[in-house]
Amino acid sequence: MPLDSKSTRILELYRQFQMGKVVNKQDAAERYGVNVRSIQRDIDSIRSFLSEQVAQNGVMQSIEYDAKERGYKLITQEVSHLSEGEMLAVCKILIESRAFSKDEMTSLLGRILNLSVSPKDKDQIEGYISNELFHYTDPAHPSANTNFLWEVAQAIKEKHILEITYSRLKGKETVVRKIEPVGILFSEYYFYLMGFIVDPEKRKDFDKEDDPFPTIYRIDRIQSVKDTNEKFVIPYKDRFKEGEYKNRVQFMYGGELQQVEFKYYGPSIEAVLDKLPMAKVVEEKEGVYTVKAETFGKGILMWLLSQGHHIKVISPKCLVEEIKEEVGRVYSHYFK
Fold first, then answer.
1. Alpha-carbon distance 35 to 127, whole Å?
2. Residue by residue, what is the 3-state secondary structure of 170-212?
3. What is the rounded average pLDDT of the residues 96-104?
4. Are 289 and 277 in contact (CB under 8 A)?
5. pLDDT (tens digit per residue) in 150-203
6. Could you give the CA distance from residue 6 to residue 258 in angstroms, rounded to a whole number?
7. Apex 96 CA angle, 223 and 122, nearest 5
8. CA angle at residue 40 from 38 to 45, to 5 degrees?
9. What's the pTM?
10. What angle do CA 200, 205, 211 make, to 5 degrees?
């Protein structure tokens, strides 16, 4: 093969990169008797080859320009890959989330697999999830706009006030709100934006006007987002902690922080502790568990009612009364 052939030239450049040498495009062009654009195309070909090798050998390599040395060199870093089983688990969790339409979910999974596993493993994993994807049903709600997600995340980082146009669930009316965004959460098929309303007049319709916790907005119901570039300040000690909030909230219903105590008569206390991460078993007697949990809002009422006769709420008294009233309303549907 002639020394100046394209394939030989690319192989020699690749060998120089592997040996740790710095490649100057002008010098290489003169050496091989080609123009600089040809050398740039060779480097791009090597970059493309290296990107395809990541999934196979677990090493990420790239060709980067070093301004100090006035040339290109090979940068290598180890990549901690997911195992085949871990990647399958990630795919299963994404499918179960039903956060996106079927087309979006299929595209997302395909791109993740392309970047994460070898072609052989990709084919196997796609075989394991193909039936679920075939029968995947689009969610009833619109998919969350991922551009909104990123824009909101940036506003949270920069502490910029957002102006959102929001379609309310109650009354179906559209409202405009200026909020201080503090967090994004995902729960039960939906992404949520957490934020404090800037205008105190807008809070007068709340159950608790001086509620110290953020308002919850479903991101798929946000019609538009505008970054006002106005800054807001929240002291570090008062910053919103998504993880702690998520552990205490059920079904993303806002409200006050409360201590709930109940007896559990069901078959799996583990399922209760998984659903209520902040719950603690304070007593166990003859298979009956007394549980205390710290929770936000009225979402806990929905979960408690979903457990039927497996749960008896002890406190707080106001929650006990709410359950009695709700049970009475349910009873009236069947026994009038």
1. 47
2. CCCCEEEEEEEEEEEEEECCEEEEEEEECCHHHHCCCCCCCCC
3. 91
4. no
5. 888 999 889 999 999 988 877 678 888 999 998 888 888 888 888 888 876 666
6. 71
7. 110
8. 95
9. 0.63
10. 60
